[in-house]
Design goal:
There is one protein chain. Helix content is 69%, strand content 0%. By secondary structure, it is mainly α. Helix 1 packs antiparallel against helix 2, helix 2 crosses helix 3 and helix 3 runs antiparallel to helix 5. The two termini are 18 Å apart. The mean pLDDT is 94.
Amino acid sequence: MKNTGYSTTARLFHWGMAALILVTIPVGLLMVQSGIGRSLQNALFLYHKNVGVLLLGLIMARLVWRVLNPAPPLPAGLPAWQAKLSRVTHGLLYALLLVVPLSGYIRVRAGGFPIESLDAFGVPSLVQKSEQLAALAKSVHYYSGMMIAALLVLHIGAALYHRFAKQDGVFARMWPPFGGKKGA
């Protein structure tokens, strides 16, 4: 029987990024709320910006990994519309996982704010200060973040559907996080 599961490396990329993203989205929404204390708000901004840098590095590494290690084939019995929806959803998630941290970076740097993890290593800003650019990047960051959230609901819902309703092995391709093909 051919192994249709993801490698351990792919699973670690998936679940590590999932954990960071599932915390970072609510942090991003909370940090801009009025009425929270300044010290908490500063800590949330610090977390959000610096985890964003980490996520950008992880998605770039993950994309390189994915090019060098293509996804295993989908199960043969999967309806064509589900296979197509899966490809489209995954493609959009990968694209947005680049757009969101890049637009966040541009928003922060164009707004004249620090990114402490980059500043600590002496990484200069690649963007000049510009209120107009910062405002545009802020909108792109917000709406693309909302699109990721919506796609994650679809993605998680589909995974749970395949696990509990269909029980067709699709969920087992990525679960458990430390499973997968030997040697990869």
